[in-house]
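does this look right to u?? 1,3-dihydroxyacetonephosphate version
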Amino acid sequence: MRIPFIAGNWKMNTTAAEAERLVLEMLERLDKIEGVEKVLCPPFVSLVAISMMLENSSIKLGAQNMYFEAKGAYTGEISPLMLRELCGFVILGHSERRWYFGETDEQVNKKVKAALANKLKPILCVGERLEDNEAGKTEEVVSRQVTAALSGIEPVRDLVIAYEPVWAIGTGKAASGKQAAATIQFIRAVVAKLWNKGIAQDLRILYGGSVTGANIAEFISHPEIDGALVGGASLKAEEFVGIVERTAEIKKRTK
Ligand code: 13P
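got this back:
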């Protein structure tokens, strides 16, 4: 059984004070929701404070990126050693990292390896751009990204994959549940080939891209879709809690 998974990627939003306020607004209700793994991914500068706020709660913490070296002269970077004291998860290969900051498949692969070596669970993001989608290259692109990111890595269950089509991120134009489920099924087949069927069946694969309280049900009611990586809607306490509550209800019903 794959435990449903909802993560909030706050991206470059919230000052330290705003981040604490947002956690306070959702903490009590979010903490009570059972049957869903809940993860908040605030900016680096809020990880320390929020890790303390989440102590003794059922809510987990994740970072949004990291460098693959453990330490050294890499001005401005954050290492797995620094993160592992604070959080259990780290988002890697987000399309904003790939497209705005030139992160390559090879770097993503190094980051996934470094995260796993440090007991951080990667939330590995893959997804095609609009032009790839329109050219019918979705499967080719995600297959390349998944294969490259997992290259040289022994099969592990401590990994979550998020399928985030670039054209659906922050645009208000989410994929349809059917489209997302089909690509997620394809990704599972890629993992089965790369690793094995058992692991592929056990891995959580999420959808991300313009997920809201209004459309979460469309995704989560597909058995193939194990949860969501939520951007904009995770910055609104009421809406994010609603997304997690709906997920818990629907997944319980369709178990
Ligand atoms: P939005 O939910 O704002 O479209 O962002 C999705 C995303 O990129 C999550 O990582």
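The domain at 5-253 is CATH 3.20.20.70 (TIM Barrel). idk if thats expected tbh
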